[in-house]
Write a structure and sequence with these properties.
Length: about 325
């Protein structure tokens, strides 16, 4: 008889545990039901998401202010991909018709910003084309989307991407000529290195491209490379190409009798005495190419960015 009561008690205990687990699974999470010492996440730590409706028969397009670098979907019922030929346009639609559960969508863009959306199914979504505001261009405090926060990317190390962008914008707006001996001019095109700045482990190159001719200048590409000063005959030229991390107001064309200014951010570097930095700007389908030469003495004299008055919006 004792064995029977013992078995009944074990069965009753198992049923009770299973019932508690069923209740936990069916009950919505309050966000603070953790065992042990756990600090609850308060709402001021939450990034408010945008509401997004998708459907099976139509595609929703979201236009971001910068190229899309990362996308994550909460459900397999969602499909998302960059539009063909457009790096900053994301297309989203339902993979299954009429899915019931709400899902989410997270996006990181090239300008180091994070966006989040709560996604629901709708037979006829009202908003099929959505444009996300660019808070870096339209006023930081006023127009900044409530769901956006800078993301620290590996190429900038420990630097704030917003601070780097703000430095580039300030250099561009101040438009000061700190360097007067580095430039190139031919065929009505003048290319100048107006300033060279440093901040921690970053270098900022400030350029001006002026077109005094009536024919527009279409930029093919710009390359930074460290090369040997003197190369003997039959000796292979050793080139070290340095890829810019970011740019501000990067141009593709300068119309006739116009000028444009650009700031590039590069990782900090120096040049050995027997080498030099060559900056080549090539014209697309043209011959008005420009070449600048930068010495190591120019790099080590770069103005420290702390001396600039960076204007925070």
């Amino acid at each position: 008889m004792k064995q029977i009561f013992l078995m009944l008690a074990i069965i009753a205990g198992a049923i009770s545990v299973n019932a508690q687990e069923d209740v936990r699974e069916s009950s919505p999470s309050t966000g603070d039901l953790f065992e042990g010492f756990t600090r609850p996440l308060t709402f001021n730590r939450m990034i408010p998401p945008y509401g997004l409706e998708v459907t099976f028969t139509k595609t929703v397009h979201i236009i971001f202010p910068a190229a899309v670098r990362y996308v994550d979907l909460g459900l397999i019922d969602l499909l998302a991909a960059k539009a063909d030929g457009a790096e900053n346009v994301l297309r989203v639609k339902a993979a299954t018709q009429g899915f019931r559960k709400e899902s989410n969508l997270s996006v990181i863009t090239e300008d180091n910003s994070y966006y989040t959306f709560n996604v629901k199914y709708a037979d006829e979504p009202v908003k099929l084309s959505i444009e996300m505001a660019d808070f870096l261009h339209t006023g930081y405090e006023i127009n900044r989307p409530g769901n956006e926060l800078p993301v620290y990317l590996s190429d900038l190390g420990s630097e704030s991407p917003y601070l780097v962008r703000l430095i580039m914008e300030t250099i561009h707006k101040n438009n000061r000529t700190k360097i007067k001996h580095i430039g190139s001019k031919n065929f009505g095109i003048q290319y100048l290195l107006k300033g060279l700045y440093s901040h921690n482990e970053l270098l900022f190159f400030y350029f001006q491209l002026k077109n005094t001719s009536t024919v527009s200048f279409n930029v093919d590409y710009l390359v930074f490379k460290i090369v040997d000063r003197k190369v003997a005959k039959r000796t292979a030229i050793q080139e070290q190409v340095i890829i810019p991390l970011h740019s501000y107001n990067q141009i593709t064309v300068v119309a006739g009798n116009k000028e444009e200014r650009t700031v590039f951010t590069l990782p900090k570097f120096t040049i050995p005495n027997d080498r030099q930095l060559i900056i080549e700007l090539l014209e697309k389908d043209g011959g008005r190419n420009q070449t600048l030469t930068v010495e190591n003495a120019d790099l080590i004299r770069a103005e420290v960015i702390d001396n600039l008055q960076v204007k925070v919006k």
